[in-house]
Amino acid sequence: MRTGEQTRSSRSSQTGRVFDAAARDHGAAASLLWDPLGEAYVERVRPAPGERVLDACCGGGASAIAAGRAVGATGRVDAVDLAEGLVELGRRRAAAERLEQVRSMPPT
């Protein structure tokens, strides 16, 4: 790995750790802030049943959950984020709503 790539990778790892540490607070604010924003975004974008959606920087899944409802069981939502704690929060939320079409993935 070259120096620039190492620096970029190191910054990504640090960013992920910062947001992991905030995952509990992020989840607590979800219903007041993140979920309404995610729902408004998905209403604006209007994914249709059966479509595929990529939610980059998915956080705790606010947009991914709303998109999963919109695309239905025949669609798919791939949700990715640098913060594994937030990805896990989104994964649990999708499972609670039985949104199997929402696939949450931590960074590789």
Automatic annotation (TrEMBL):
> Has the keyword Zinc-finger been applied to this entry?
no
Enzyme Commission designation: 2.1.1.-
Q: Does the keyword Transferase apply?
A: yes
InterPro entries, A to Z: SAM-dependent_MTases_sf (IPR029063)
Q: Which UniProt keywords apply?
A: Methyltransferase, Transferase
The top EC class is transferase
Q: Which GO terms describe its biological process?
A: methylation
The protein's matches in SUPFAM superfamilies, at most eight in alphabetical order, are given as: S-adenosyl-L-methionine-dependent methyltransferases
One Gene Ontology MF term: methyltransferase activity
The protein in question is named Class I SAM-dependent methyltransferase
Q: Which organism is it from?
A: Actinomadura sediminis
